């Protein structure tokens, strides 16, 4: 039997001696008359360094990452390798690199052969960022599973097959997958390693039955499988609600739900040690100098400054057309259905908001059905609409949406005329990209002036 130096148990191969000859490898000594050139020598040196770093070092993943971790970012990895299964809460401060810390753990577990599939559960607005980070830094190609892509991915599945069976690495919108009709399938086919970003949005203090409760129900179901690796990532683990914090800790270990309120004193040292093995939290000041390595975190300079800009004539005309359309759908509802009227009202507000943001935001909104339409009651439409339009944060958790709000409403209404108007306005918005976007041009000028002032 043989196995490569960096291989796993799955890579063990047998040798049938009557057919295959086994002998020691021999290499000629270097010929001083043929030293080669600089490029080939450097390639050989790098190959040897990377090969040994991958196979003989303590971490098998280091030859497969495109980032050089700082010493403090290795702490969660070292903690994770002491756990079986890995159940870890990474609660480092903003900007310390929690994504890199979680990605290092995932890459290491994959390269060790301990896991074959990975799911990242995150708010929808962070899904693309996670996809880029995993691809660029850890060479993990993950599929996005959000409202806009799920139907396309499911078309490639066989009968009885889930898209989570088909794609080993996925990034899943928590607000898409939390609903009752999707949650059970995800629980059944979920990968053996799950990273939960913004994990505080999954904590539940026992009050209300909204999106936070649904997310907690989902994550609790994932944690119920005691063999599953679970990495929780958040910069705000404790929001002041002690019950919610305990519910978050209980995802790591059910016993943590019963920890004493007062953890001080010698008598509670064993509780603190047990929790410390699965909970890491550092502020920037704690690791600015760590293991003789300095980390120059950026410092904010100056205060807030407001700048103005003028809309171009083309943008003004588009604004007037969209404003006219918004007035029509609000003041002249198609029927007397109160829920439908409410959806139209929030759609109009969200449409105007995106138009004030940028031509790109306006085009995306005009081309996409309103998220508010995926509701059944006036209260639900108001809840989604408030958060999408006003950036309302409820209990430290904004209810994310997978689609730009405000574009269209009620897909079965048959109002093809409205949709043609929306698409026409979307094309007009797209024509304003780049040089015709005066807000963007003003921002470019300001950024260039900042760069120049630093030189």
Distance between the termini: 62 Å
Radius of gyration, in Å, reads 27 Å
Tally of helical segments:
18
Q: What is the CATH C-level name of the largest domain? A: Alpha Beta
In short:
By secondary structure, this protein is an alpha/beta fold. The chain contains 18 helices and 9 strands.
Note down, in words, how this protein is organized:
With 455 residues, the chain is of the alpha/beta class. The protein has two domains: 62-294, 3-Layer(aba) Sandwich (Rossmann fold), CATH 3.40.50; 324-454, no CATH class. Helices cover 44% and strands 7% of the residues. It contains 18 helices and nine strands. The protein has helices spanning 38-55, 75-80, 98-111, 127-138, 150-154, 163-166, 174-177, 180-189, 211-223, 242-252, 269-276, 284-287, 313-331, 338-357, 359-366, 378-390, 416-430, 438-454; strands spanning 87-90, 118-122, 143-145, 169-173, 193-197, 229-233, 279-280, 289-290, 293-294. The strands form two sheets. It has a seven-stranded parallel sheet, sandwiched between helices. A two-stranded antiparallel sheet has the order 8-9. β5 (193-197), α9 (211-223) and β6 form a beta-alpha-beta unit. α14 (338-357) runs antiparallel to α15 and α14 runs parallel beside α16 (378-390). The longest helix has 20 residues, at 338-357. The chain is globular. The termini are far apart. Residues 369-376 and 391-414 have low confidence and may be disordered.
């Amino acid at each position: 039997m043989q196995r490569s130096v960096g291989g796993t148990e799955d890579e063990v191969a047998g040798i049938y001696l009557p057919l295959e000859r086994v002998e020691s490898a021999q290499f000629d000594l270097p010929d001083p008359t043929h030293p080669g050139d600089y490029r080939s020598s450097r390639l050989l040196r790098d190959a040897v360094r990377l090969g040994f770093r991958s196979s003989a070092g303590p971490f098998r993943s280091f030859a497969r990452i495109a980032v050089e971790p700082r010493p403090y970012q290795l702490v969660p990895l070292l903690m994770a390798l002491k756990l079986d299964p890995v159940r870890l809460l990474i609660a480092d401060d903003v900007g310390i690199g929690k994504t890199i810390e979680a990605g290092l753990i995932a890459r290491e577990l994959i390269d060790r052969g301990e896991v074959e599939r990975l799911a990242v559960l995150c708010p929808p607005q962070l899904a693309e960022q996670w996809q880029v980070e995993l691809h660029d830094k850890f060479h993990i190609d993950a599929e996005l599973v959000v409202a806009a892509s799920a139907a396309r991915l499911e078309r490639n599945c066989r009968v009885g097959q889930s898209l989570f069976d088909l794609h080993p690495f996925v990034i899943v919108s928590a607000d898409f997958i939390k609903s009752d009709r999707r949650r059970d399938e995800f629980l059944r086919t979920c990968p053996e390693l799950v990273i939960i970003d913004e994990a505080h949005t999954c904590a539940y203090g026992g009050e209300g039955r909204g999106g936070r409760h649904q997310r907690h129900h989902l994550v609790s179901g994932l944690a119920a499988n005691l063999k599953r690796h679970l990495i929780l990532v958040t910069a705000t683990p404790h929001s002041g609600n002690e019950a919610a914090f305990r519910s978050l800790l209980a995802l790591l270990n059910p016993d943590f739900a019963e920890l004493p309120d007062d953890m001080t004193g010698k008598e509670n040292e064993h509780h603190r040690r047990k929790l410390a093995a699965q909970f890491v939290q550092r502020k920037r000041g704690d690791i600015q100098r760590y293991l003789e390595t300095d980390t120059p975190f950026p410092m904010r300079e100056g205060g807030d400054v407001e700048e103005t800009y003028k809309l171009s004539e083309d943008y003004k005309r588009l604004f007037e057309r969209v404003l006219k359309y918004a007035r029509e759908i609000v003041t002249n509802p198609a029927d007397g259905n109160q829920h439908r009227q409410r959806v139209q009202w929030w759609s109009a507000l969200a449409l105007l908001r995106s138009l004030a943001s940028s031509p790109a935001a306006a085009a995306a909104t005009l081309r996409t059905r309103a998220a508010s339409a995926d509701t059944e009651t006036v209260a639900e439409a108001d809840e989604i609409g408030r958060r999408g339009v006003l950036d309302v944060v409820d209990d430290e958790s904004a209810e994310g949406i997978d689609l730009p709000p405000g574009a269209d409403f009620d897909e079965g209404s048959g109002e093809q005329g409205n949709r043609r108007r929306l698409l026409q306005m979307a094309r007009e918005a797209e024509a304003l990209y780049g040089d015709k976007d005066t807000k963007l041009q003003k921002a470019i000028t300001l950024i260039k002036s900042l760069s120049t002032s630093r030189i």
